[in-house]
Amino acid sequence: MNREIKLRKNSSRTKTLKDVNFMKxxxxxxxxxxxxxxxxxxxxxxxxxxxxxxxxxxxxxxLLAIEKRRAESI
Length: 74
Known about the structure:
By secondary structure, this protein is mostly helical. It has a domain at about 35-74. It has 2 helices and no strands. The chain has helices at about 20-30, 35-55. The N and C termini lie far apart (about 40 Å).
């Protein structure tokens, strides 16, 4: 299985990464999420998991997008 993409030094930071890339990135740049955001993500994952379970579907995919916004735009 190909679970990692090769990143070049000048590659875009907005590339879609695979799970091995994410695990490596997490060690050097941890996700600093507000508590309310963490709770929202966990609740949504639980709801999605329960729905898939009720439909008899197993899905290992997860799309996580994090957008950094400037303080004045919040």
